[in-house]
Amino acid sequence: MRKGIHPTNYRIVAFKDMSNETMFLTRSTVQTRETVVVDGVEYPLYKLEISNTSHPFYTGKMKLVDTAGRVDKFMNRYKKHLDAKKS
User: Fold this and answer.
1) Burial, 76: exposed, middle or buried (Cβ in 10 Å; 0-12, 13-18, 19+)?
2) Quick count: other Cβ atoms within 10 Å of Cβ 4?
3) Which of 68, 12, 80, 77 is nearest to 43 (CA)?
4) What is the pLDDT of residue 37?
5) Cα separations (Å) of 85 from 30, 64, 78, 81, 82?
6) Distance between CA atoms of 74 and 83, rounded to whole angstroms?
7) What is the pLDDT, as a whole number, of residue 22?
8) What is the pLDDT tens value at each position of the chain, 87 positions in all?
9) Which residues of 10-26 are buried (b: 16+ CB within 10 A; e: fewer)?
10) According to the model, what pLDDT value does residue 13 have?
11) CA 82 to CA 46: how far, in whole Å?
12) DSSP per residue over the chain, as a string?
């Protein structure tokens, strides 16, 4: 492994899944602008649109809801083709 290429400024950061309000703490070097208090301790906050608690692969849900509605647009556009393949 090459020396001197890995960051050294790791700190505990709170990551918040905005689709279901789940929050988890882990070490990261991500830059943040907001903070949040968890169990009386203030941590930098990084907001996520999707995490393992809301991703269809991990939850088993077939429908993905995203902020732009891209998946729904695709499903509506190609519904005839998808239904024909199922039959």
Assistant:
1) exposed
2) 5
3) 12
4) 93
5) 43, 20, 11, 6, 5
6) 13
7) 87
8) 788 888 888 999 999 988 888 899 999 999 999 999 999 999 999 998 888 777 767 677 765 555 556 777 777 777 777 676 665
9) eeebbbbbebeeebeee
10) 94
11) 37
12) --TT-S----EEEEEEETTT--EEEEEE----SEEEEETTEEEEEEEES--TTT-HHHH--S----SS-HHHHHHHHTHHHHHHHH-
Mean pLDDT of the chain: 81
28 phi and psi angles, rounded to 5 deg: -160, 165
| Among candidate residues 12, 9, 10, 11, the one with its CA nearest the CA of residue 39 | 12
The residue written with tokens 């269809």 in the block is 56
CB atoms within 10 A of CB 55: 13
